[in-house]
Design brief:
With 376 residues, this protein is mainly alpha-helical. It is built from 14 helices and no strands.
């Protein structure tokens, strides 16, 4: 049936993205070692061997190859009828990866980096990849200007939040993989409801490619990572997550959303932010902490949530799994709002959140145990 054919098309695209990213990562790794393209180990780094940070370039190749393949395959014809958005996202992806790539090699000044991010987000929004409607009391963002500003702000926020947690092996790739898989399911189901004649759209396509890119990169980035995605990769993933969320907002007509539909209608914007709830929290705390200390908000330190989890007693892998578990709990709970009555979502959320919390504080519980034996 159409469902099966559809899934096969998306699986094929994700597979192309995964295979190209995997091969490109292997090549980049070899080149980086041959030409010694890796930074010195810094005090805050979790790794001890010099490790290249240029994985973003390989991820970009995987993304571009998959977009190219989708353009050739007849299935995605409707997405490419007006190629403006696809081309815009591709151009912005190349620009942001280049910016991150240069930063990974030369450690750019944070003001320059931030200006570059705003520039790329501005191009994205200016070319029409922006919030079309926000269902706040049936409010359509009418003016191009308002939509542009909100879009740029959200895109820069998401990019920085993703980049912020990139401190442990497999952390970003795994969190984005889990969150984007849930987002893919959401965009897929939404399309079935809003546009049953045409299941192929840009949001679902980008999500499928991001899933493939993360899967292709993770084998090299898993603990004892041989290569990092660096700012190039993290900013690219943030940009793509934001782009797929923004292209979904155009599918929902705010004039017909009732209060009962409010949560599902909000989901395209809630989901990327929900997936990134830990990174955003981390980002906010870090900026406040640094400003209070009289430093630049982008000055690096070793007080991120992922560092604190390790200080808490979690292993490197354990700290990464804490992020995975919370990402899954939050994003799946958001998706359930779309599928079942709101009051039933709690039946999933509360038990799983309690389990996630138990896992998060487990090292503290365990380390207290031997003490009680001593007392006996």
């Amino acid at each position: 049936g159409i469902g099966g054919r559809l899934m096969r098309a998306y699986l094929l695209i994700a597979l192309i993205a995964a295979v190209v990213t995997f091969g490109a990562t292997y090549l980049v790794l070899k080149l980086a070692h041959r030409y010694k393209l890796y930074p010195q180990i810094r005090a805050r780094d979790a790794h001890t061997k010099p490790t290249p940070r240029l994985g973003g370039a390989a991820m970009m190749l995987g993304f571009a190859a998959a977009i190219g393949a989708a353009g050739v395959l007849g299935w995605f014809h409707s997405v490419f009828v007006d190629p403006t958005k696809v081309v815009t996202i591709l151009v912005c992806a190349v620009l942001i990866t280049t910016l991150g790539f240069l930063d990974d090699l030369y450690d750019l000044d944070w003001t320059l980096k931030l200006a570059g991010q705003f520039g790329v987000a501005g191009i994205l929004a200016w070319q029409g990849v922006q919030i079309v409607s926000l269902p706040i009391a049936g409010l359509t963002i009418g003016s191009f200007g308002t939509s542009l500003i909100v879009t740029v702000f959200i895109t820069v926020l998401v990019m920085n939040a993703v980049n912020f947690i990139d401190g442990l092996d497999g952390l970003v790739a795994g969190v984005v993989l889990i969150g984007t898989s849930v987002f893919f399911a959401y965009a897929y189901l939404l399309t079935q409801q809003t546009n049953p004649t045409n299941y192929f759209n840009l949001a679902t396509l980008i999500s499928a490619i991001v899933i493939g890119v993360c899967l292709g990169f993770l084998p090299f980035n898993w603990h004892r990572a041989r290569i990092f995605m660096g700012d190039g990769g993290a900013l690219l993933l943030g940009l793509l997550m934001s782009s797929s969320a923004l292209t979904v907002t155009g599918q929902i007509d705010p004039s017909i959303t009732t209060n009962a539909d409010a949560v599902p209608a909000f989901l395209p914007l809630i989901l990327p932010l929900a997936i990134l709830v830990l990174p955003l929290l981390d980002f906010t705390l870090a900026v406040l902490r640094r400003l209070r200390a009289g430093k630049s908000p982008f000055a690096a330190d070793r007080k991120h949530i992922h560092h604190r989890l390790q200080d808490f007693g979690h292993s490197h892998l354990g700290s990464v799994l804490v992020f995975y578990v919370w990402t899954a709990v939050i994003s799946i709970s958001c998706l359930l709002f779309f599928l079942i009555p709101g009051e039933d979502v709690g039946l999933f959320f509360f038990p799983s959140a309690i389990a996630a919390m138990a896992y998060t504080i487990w090292p503290v519980v365990v380390t207290r145990r031997p003490l009680s034996k001593d007392i006996e």
